[in-house]
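Per reviewer request, we include the raw input and output of the structure prediction for the construct analysed in the revised manuscript.
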Amino acid sequence: MTDPNHPNHPNDSIHPNDVHHPIDPNDVNHPDEPGPDSARNPLNHPIDPHHPDHLREPMSPPHPYYEELEFLTHHEEQVRFTVRYGDDRRPPGRPGVLARRASLGAGWSVVQFRLPASAQADPGAYGLLEREVESAVAIERRYGDEKFAAVFARVVGFDLTAPEPFVLYRLPRGRPLTEWAGRLGPEEQERIIGQLALAVRLMGEAGLVHRAVAPDTVRWDGAHVRLCEPFAAVRAGETREPFGGAPWASPEQREGTGAADPRDDLWSVAQLGYYLLSGRPSRGDGPPGDLADYRRLAALAQSGLFSPRAAERPRPADLMRLLNVRDPLAAALGAADPLARWRAAYDTRLAGKKAAFDNDPLTDAEPYPPDAAADPRSTRTIIDRILGGGDGSGRPVASPLEPPPVPPSRSRMCPHCLLPVEYDERLLVTIDAKGNRIPLDLSAERRPSHVADALRKAYHLCPHTMEGDEEHELPVPYLTNGEPLSVALVGSSSVGKTHLLAAMLGEIELGGLAPYGLRSRPLNPEAHRTYLRERVQNLQQGRQLGRTGQQTFARFADGLLVSAGGGTPRPVVFFDLAGEDLAQDGEVARFLMGVDAFVFVLDPLRALRLGSLDPVREQSGLRRRDLGDEAFATVLDRIPRRRGGLVAAPAALAVNKSDLVRFEPSVDRWLGRALPGRFDPAEARDESRDAYAFLAQHASAAWLKPFDDCANCSLHFVAATGGQARGDHFPHGVRPRRVLAPLLSLFAMCGLLPGAEPTEGIVR
């Protein structure tokens, strides 16, 4: 941390002995907050774009020591200042990060923390800075206009896309508590503990745990405490990571056990209370042995505040009541929810779909003329095989009210031509490096293990290839395992379908399905290795993937064998077609009529009416579209419908590139946290509700067409890359976020996720 106690630092005039009269945390005259003298104090508004020192147009630096600095405010407004930097220092507790004073414009002093190029070889270093910025912005957006925000380090701006990403804060006021040891009276000690309890309460309400509350990170200016920058903050509920040392970090936090809890910070508050009163730190393993000697700590001790387990400590609001500290959030409990209107619209639409589904007869009206069934390749026959009611030769697919499919046979519907394929050893082939299909004869092989290994890598020709059709084949495991599940990604060109699929399969390759009781193996080992090499590895190495080319025949991009426990593996195949192919109602997209599940990929740049996205739209050449995604409309118009006029196939609407809007509260609530270790239907429903409300508020109704048209459709915030590409690469690497959420939701709807009920009517 940059030392604000340098002799030339403006805070040098504040000395521990210069104790101000006690001031309420809500005091309007706090030095950092706008008050009667705010107009004369430029530090109160260091980033006002109307200030004469703010550069509206590029200009030459007025002095050789000055440069220009461009960054985003916490409202993501882009501003530019002349800047002069001080010397670099290495702040304690933040490996790799450099700190320095910076003077903006006419002399507005801030402190900058940046990640130098030399530290960016550590893939986790950028993520830590990114997490800090997200926490600081979340606090500023939520509490920045409140007087009690004085207890936090106040963010000025940031740039996470710069060659050396950085964040700017106002200069910290006061001195660390370590310098006040032995100089504080009882009233000051009580005020410090009360204000720390308030700070923990505020952070907990924002879903954050600070984790770095200690005597050298908490400042006191005689009236107010000030927490340090949230460089160690994590989301409440996240798996604890080992951090901190005794006695200031709780035993559970030091060991990294359980889930992060705001009461972790209350342990630190308790330890600071003991330290201020006794003048020495405790051992940090539980209540201090001489705690009974300090009567002023008796109430805290009786509350369980010194318990080594978070679950046994009081909650921040309870501690504030115990300390007789006013809770500024209590009056806000009944405040209006800004998204209440659209959350209610979600509930209404969900209820409407359920009513339409429940009130429609089981047998649908015949949508095609009777003579269509005469042609074995007619659409009516295909529909029967997909949705039931055919002659049984096709792949059985249950209607939303029927139980899950029966154990598989060796007959499967070809996902390309939508006709049944019966396993026939005479149609087995292998494919060489040049793409030649070589017949495979295993009749002379008597070793079962060799036969099994050969079949694992072999293909089965589709017998329905007709003149003019492209010859195609299926991996043998597709025909010899459980009920297949085909998943198609839908969206216009450049929405990120290819990156999202590569990120999904990369997470699966890293064991992302294991916490949910699922195992996966390649459907075809060689094809899977090729996909990993050409797509997943390139993406993980920070390369931008090329656009998916248009095809004359729909082939799936990759496939897996997914099994739950010791159950029969089910083939899962993924289709990733070019947006142009999906937006055209042509023959290449006819396979869509037999797809089992869909992931509709939404691009915020096209959909959202947010001014903060305009600079990115300008750079990328994309425009906002109120008419929605034409690929969504074309595909939904083509998919067969069942009861209530709804699409029976399960669907997920993935708001991709959500990192572009990650500071919006609804997005931050979900994108800022990792997926839970188990699938929770209630949590998935909450995310769907929030995502629907966010889109309904900031986009036209056309973008919600997948949810409106599909009987079962979840909504998710995801980020395939976590950042914008420059040229053909991502300068700070890729950091996929929550990319498995849509897939897990589809697995749950299709009965593939252990413990999750398969789709029966409307589930969300």
